[in-house]
């Protein structure tokens, strides 16, 4: 989001309408007997030359299934490192990261890649759409890792695009879409495999205020109506207001928590 921009008045696309997937479990709220994320006394240490860098320092955090959590903090506070750990993109130097009941440190690289494909949906600031593919084809990409027929992949991708209000843009390529529409394609791609956890790293950073508002309303709706657990990294307090729980990191330490 541009510096100084604020979230503008409601500008709501028709999202979530006609959200019917080929299987009944897709986007259905799931009850959990334990927190979906359990981070216990986690420290992450990098070494650069002779210096030791600690982006996370003895962090303990539990996130329940169905929560919408915003990780706040200045640049270098450790929020992206924390997101990478709970999404299985990195490993802690010490402590335990347990997600969906699994200790991620006990998984091999191949098992971890499979686990990510099945359980985590990623939304990035820069969309990461392939320009030569249509919206539908971009959403289908992660589904090629699943044991689905071509027809089933297409059906899942189309359902995900309808969920984010892009049922009429399925055959458009990224250059034919607005920034907000591109990010909604990216969210549909993240939802296509019906992940238990949706993680987003500064998802509104490249959007204007109106498009950012649309994307955040969509994420809020996915959380409230479909029970998706969402963890979003942001430095913008306006973005954090859409979450139900706000965590502040400072120099690798959790400093403050606020619930709404």
Main beta sheet: 6 strands, mixed
Rg for CA atoms: 18 Å
Pick out the low-confidence regions.
Answer: 1-26, 28-32
Given this structure, which CATH class is correct?
Alpha Beta
Through-space gap between termini: 23 Å
Oligomer: single chain
**Strand composition percent:** 25-35%
Integer tally of domains: 1
Number of strands: 10
CATH architecture: 3-Layer(aba) Sandwich
SS summary, helix count: 7
Helix content: 25-40%
How would you write the strand order of the largest sheet?
6-7-8-3-9-10
Structural class call reads alpha/beta
Average predicted local confidence, pLDDT: 85
Features:
single chain; 260 residues; alpha/beta; Rossmann fold; 6-stranded mixed β-sheet; 4-stranded antiparallel β-sheet; 7 helices; 28% helix; disordered N terminus
Question: How would you explain this protein's 3D organization?
Answer:
With 260 residues, the chain is α/β, with parallel strands linked by helices. 28% of the residues lie in helices and 25% in strands. It has a single domain (37-259), classed as Rossmann fold (3-Layer(aba) Sandwich). It has 7 helices and 10 strands. The strands form 2 sheets. Strands 6-7-8-3-9-10 form a 6-stranded mixed beta sheet, with helices on both faces. A 4-stranded antiparallel beta sheet has the order 2-1-4-5, with helices on one face. Helix 4 crosses helix 5 (179-191) and helix 5 runs parallel beside helix 6 (209-226). The radius of gyration is 18 Å and the shape is globular. Mean pLDDT is 85; it is low at 1-26 and 28-32.
